[in-house]
């Protein structure tokens, strides 16, 4: 799996805009040349990690809401990003958690 985040939200490289929060992609998303370009780009942080990208919010395996203390802001943002839900970049954890809670409730209904 490839994880990418940009130092500037919406920065474009390899034919796509990259958010300021971590976004995960399957290993075969980028060619070797694109991946090398992404890794060399100082505006991006790129990680290759084992495992598959997170299951999108709304799937049967991703509708459980973790306890507030058991989830980080980055984890909340990643789940919101996967659900393509927008939020303020400077939002507080409680605000993000409430947004995730409403998204997951809608997904379960």
Summarize the model shown.
The protein is α+β, with helices and mostly antiparallel strands.
Report on the structure:
- With 109 residues, the protein is an alpha+beta fold.
- It has helices at residues 32-40, 73-82, 93-108, and strands spanning 2-6, 11-13, 16-18, 23-25, 44-48.
- A 3-stranded antiparallel sheet has the order 4-1-5. It has a two-stranded antiparallel ribbon with strand order 2-3.
- The longest helix has 16 residues, at 93-108.
- It starts with a strand and ends with a helix.
- Residues 55-61 have low confidence and may be disordered.
Fill in the keyword field for this structure.
109 residues; two-stranded antiparallel ribbon; 5 strands; alpha+beta; single chain
Write the layout of secondary structure elements.
Elements: E1 2-6, E2 11-13, E3 16-18, E4 23-25, H1 32-40, E5 44-48, H2 73-82, H3 93-108
Antiparallel strand pairs: 1-4, 1-5, 2-3
